[in-house]
Structure prediction request, 331 residues.
Amino acid sequence: MIQSRLPRARVVSTGRFNPPRIVTNHELESLVDTNDEWIRTRTGIRERRIADKDVHAADMAAAAGRIAMERAGITAEGLDMILLSTATPDRLLPSTACDVQALLGARNAAAYDYATACSGFLYGLSMAEAHIASGQAETVLVCATEKMSSIVDWTDRTTCVLFGDGAGAAVVQKATDERGIMSTFMKSDGTLAELLWRPGGGSRIPLDIAVLDERSHYVKMAGPEVFKSAVRAMCEAAETAMARAGVTSDDIDLLVPHQANIRIIEATAKYARMPMEKVYVNVDRFGNMSSASIPVALDEACELGRIQPGSLVLMVAFGAGFTWAANVVRF
Ligand code: ACO
Prediction:
């Protein structure tokens, strides 16, 4: 299926927030039995940002959102909708999106959270496109915000070295020319949920002493299995999104992949026949910020001039669920 049509929605602007506190691999050596060399060679990560205790997922999303809105030249009253991806909501009820709405003063907006983990920003762009196409909204703020430091087990070396905190946001509006979302591919597989999950602390196993003792409210991941699924799924997503847009890797100016592991990024780029010079990488500086990884990378790439007006960008993601997605966007 080729989605050969003019785009319905476009990314007008982006913004990001990364907490200033840098935690290096060396610092983690004092917490768990790990070392800089293992982390660098197995993941590509050198350091990550960790938010202070009083900086929350909503604060980071609002900070990123304000920058995106300013660049788009819109005020908070001009937002019709706030869509927010997070695996680390500030609380279970109500949504973090509503907190962001309050922080921004976006009194005309509808706001809601959704949970598709690392694929969240790409799912959000697709939802924004659908709301715009259906006439529900004209201006949508898509936020992805993660305080991963609050859900990792700082005694588990197989996970705590991988993640970081941050947020990204994008203003999405109706497309008026050939710039915009040219194609989207999204898929999920709930049968593999237990390979990457937080077993306790939800309504199935409510938080109690046993959950705390077992530390089952923290992220658990079967790393090597997730690795294999991630490579397979991201390759499928990249290929399908390009085919649906009717483009090949030669047409793509920049690949912006989810930043979980440099080896996953390199494998995806190789399969998509994209030289690494055409791939944006910041996993070395931020680690895996789950759904915030792609919008932070996108925003940096725009700021550095690696994405120019007219650039064709392929984004591809994989995360817990499992969920995976890719899209081709003309900026
Ligand atoms: N420091 C030192 N040694 C370690 C560490 C560490 N931090 N962590 C694990 N090890 C050890 C293991 O115990 C193991 O030792 P053993 O051989 O004696 O048993 C050895 O290193 C190898 O461990 P593996 O897990 O096989 O290492 P691998 O090369 O697979 O790398 C990693 C692990 C980095 C987690 C990788 O599997 C990965 O990146 N997986 C995918 C992550 C991902 O994409 N997640 C999806 C998105 S995240 C989201 O949705 C929230």
In short: The mean pLDDT is 97. The chain is about 35% helix and 25% strand. The radius of gyration is 19 Å.
